[in-house]
Specification:
This protein has 10 helices and 8 strands. The protein is an alpha/beta fold. It has 2 domains: 206 residues, 2-enoyl-CoA Hydratase, Chain A, domain 1 (Alpha-Beta Complex); 48 residues. The strands form 2 sheets. The protein has a 6-stranded mixed sheet with strand order 1-2-3-4-6-8, with helices on both faces. A hairpin with a 2-residue loop joins strand 1 and strand 2.
């Protein structure tokens, strides 16, 4: 794993830290590729019950690092094997954006620990997580309008789902920088905490989730994701099935624990 993405395990909690503090953890290929790999590993690792994503130093993620070429550094002139520069850029960026898909779809809770400024692609990563715990020094900025960009890392999709189309359009089109309190009042952050308390409170919540009914959370998250797009009747059918599957799993775990106690 790259030294620009740090991995820490605390019991069943996996902490993934973007580690470019001198650049507010701005994203380059050297951090985006291992970040996606780290999320994929956390998703498939059965020992992990909850995932925290955060940034090193005084910020969460400032978005793409334009000074370092963003996601286009390795794109070469058009050729028959890789296609046009546009095709190459799409394939490269889409691969990096697996980070957001994995955080959203992995069958375990994910938490963004927002320890300072979050902007651009960073708001996509934060929005992909199930919960967002923010410190008082956190700020929120879409920033895409400042570079003439439409948005990436699922940002327009996640924030439309989280806060509704009206607020999402305000955030993206006006591009105003929000304080932590302003962001919290709009529903962007799940919890707003003193900076000194952020890590401890986030870890406490993560351990509570990791130590809880993992199969129950797995199916609960599946239901919540289905509710974002599915028609009601289809979601209702799947909810009934997932209820049966989750309670059956919980019963099996309880019976196993009882046998061990006997």
């Amino acid at each position: 794993m790259s030294d620009e993405v740090l991995i820490e395990n605390q019991g069943g909690v996996r902490i993934i830290t973007m580690n470019r503090p001198d650049r507010l953890n701005a994203l380059t290929g050297s951090i985006m590729a291992p970040l996606a790999d780290a999320c994929a590993d956390a998703a498939r690792d059965a020992s992990v019950g909850c995932v925290i994503v955060t940034g090193a130093g005084r910020g969460f993620c400032a978005g793409g690092d334009l000074k370092d070429g963003g996601s286009s550094r390795d794109i070469v002139p058009a050729n028959s094997e890789s296609g046009s520069r546009t095709e190459q850029g799409f394939a490269r960026l889409r691969g990096f954006m697996e980070t957001s898909r994995l955080l959203h779809e992995m069958p375990k809770p994910s938490i963004a620990m927002v320890n300072g400024p979050v902007a651009g692609a960073g708001i996509g990563i934060a929005g992909a997580c199930d919960l967002r715990f923010a410190g008082e020094s956190a700020t929120f900025l879409t920033a895409f309008d400042r570079i003439g960009a439409g948005g990436d890392f699922g940002s327009t999709w996640f924030w439309t789902k989280i806060v509704g189309t009206g607020v999402a359009r305000e955030l993206f089109l006006l591009g105003e920088k929000l304080t932590a309190q302003q962001a919290f009042s709009k529903g962007l952050y799940t919890r707003l905490l003193a900076d000194d308390d952020l890590r401890a409170v986030t870890l406490a919540a993560a351990h509570r989730l990791a130590d809880g009914p993992r199969m129950g959370f797995r199916y609960m998250k599946a239901n919540l994701n289905n509710a974002e797009d599915w028609a009601f009747e289809a979601a209702l059918d799947q909810e009934a099935l997932n209820m049966s599957l989750s309670t059956q799993a919980a019963s099996a775990i309880w019976k196993t624990s009882q046998k061990k106690d006997d």
